[in-house]
Amino acid sequence: MVAIKKIQDIQDEMTGWRQELHQYPQTNYEEQIASDYIKKKLTEWNIPFTDGWAGGYGIVATIEGKKNTSGKAIGLRADMDALDIDEKTGLSYCSKHEGKMHACGHDGHMAILLGATKYLNETRNFDGKVHLIFQPAEEGGRGADKMIEEGLFDKYPCESVHAVHNWPWLPLGKIGMRVGPIMAAVDTFYITVTGKEGHAAVPQGCIDPIVATSELVLALQSIVSRNVDPTESAVVSITNFNAGTGAFNIIPREAKLVGTVRTLSPTAHALIQKRFKEICDGIAQIHGVEVDLDYIVESDATVNTAEEIELAAAAAADVIGAENVDTDTTPFMTGEDFGSMLKVLKGTYVYLGQGREDDPKAHNSKPLHHAEYDFNDNALPIGASYMARIIERGLPLDE
Ligand SMILES: [Zn+2]
Ligand SMILES: [Zn+2]
Asked: What is the DSSP string of 190-228?
């Protein structure tokens, strides 16, 4: 590993920030403690910033390079929020907020961006500006969209924007990326099927929503297997099926389904939405039930642009060596609101390896959103050096 020396030297300091942030996790739009912590550091380092973004706790700081003749700027982004999980790591710096936990490693992302910020502010070996974006409410809160709606990229125009996510499924010392989609678009759906209730022994006088909804479940499952192009990736998961009162002798009036759809391409995304509507209408007709479909597009796929992946791959190679950079990593069907930033700007989202193959029982080998997960602090200098190199390579001084 050849992380930037000046960043490697502050690994202990970065670890201190990360473990401090880890103890005070707050969820969607409540990230006041992290926000105050970051602002304190920025003030200490004399870096100008604006705050109050995303309804309160988002921050954007700006550093100007030794030169600003390029007139260009690049954005670096970290998310700030935690999850509603009761931490079970038993670590000395375990969450002090009951029922809340940094189980997605956003504490690590903030520490990485702070490390890059400190280094870039001291060295300024670039021509242009860097905007450091600390974004709240990634976990289902669409904080990225909120900041964009509030004029983030009007006030801070950027050539491109970049982010990392720590990745327990990739060993420490490796970085994974790819051109095109790396995370999926996320949709949710809520379906209510209404029939006619009555005695279980007199079905002819009822319209049974359970039979209709059972067929609906199977028909919706056929979209991925029978309609979506087999070379594309898509998921339809029905996660709730609720009907009945608990009684054995009553046909209920209503059945409800809740679930999620994940897609990587706009084609599959549009097709699945269309098929949902058609299938719901078809089931309504066949069974004489009423089917109410509430289909919500939650977030777009996170799609990396080719030229910026070239920049990211070169920056990563500077830090960990080209042999440790996978430029054709497998996309995941999880969602990420950074996709909204990549919809309006060019840029990259990459997986920062943090797993430890030698110690599979280590906390930092647990998956994201797990009560025993912990961010691997050895990934801090790699992440911060990688982000710093994006700026030094993307805004070169000697051009
Ligand atoms: Zn997460
Ligand atoms: Zn996350």
From this structure: EEEEE-B-EETT-GGGSB-HHHHHHHHHHHHHHIIIIIS
Residue-wise pLDDT tens digits, 285-301: 999 999 999 999 998 99
CA distance 84 to 102: 9
Q: Are strands 254-263 and 185-194 parallel, antiparallel or unpaired?
A: antiparallel
Residue that finishes a domain, picked among 299, 314, 339: 299
Residues 76-114: pLDDT tens digits? 999 999 999 999 999 999 999 999 999 999 999 999 999
User: How many angstroms is it from 139 CA to the middle of ligand 2?
Assistant: 7
**Cβ(115)–Cβ(14) below 8 Å:** yes
Quote the ligand 2 centre to 70 CA distance (angstroms): 33
Tell me the helices (H) and strands (E) count for the chain, helix number first.
11, 16
- Ion ligand 1 nearby residues (CB, 5 A): 104
Q: How confident is the model at residue 357, as a pLDDT?
A: 67
Neighbours of ion ligand 2 (CB under 5 A): 104
What pLDDT score does 268 carry? 96
pTM for this predicted structure: 0.91
Ranges of residues in the chain whose predicted pLDDT is under 50: none
pLDDT tens for residues 116-127? 999 999 999 999
Q: Which two tokens stand for residue 335?
A: 């969602």
The answer to whether residue 380 is domain-embedded is yes
Which ligand is closest to the CA of 139, given by its number? 1
Q: Which of the ligands is closest to the CA of residue 186?
A: 1
Report if residue 86 sits inside a domain.
yes
Q: Which ligand neighbours the alpha carbon of 368 most closely?
A: 1
Residue pair 189/260 in contact (Cβ under 8 Å)? The answer is yes
If one counts every other C-beta atom within 10 angstroms of the C-beta of residue 221, the result is: 13
Examine the domain organization and report whether 241 and 309 are in the same domain.
no
110 CA from centroid of ligand 1 (Å): 14
140 CA from centroid of ligand 1 (Å): 9
* Residue range(s) defining the domain that contains residue 32: 5-184+301-394
pLDDT at 399: 57
Instruction: Output the pLDDT for position 301.
Output: 96
For residue 178, the CA-to-ligand 2 centroid distance in Å is 18
In the reported structure, the alpha carbon of residue 27 is separated from the centroid of ligand 2 by a whole-number distance in angstroms of 12
- DSSP structural state of residue 128: S
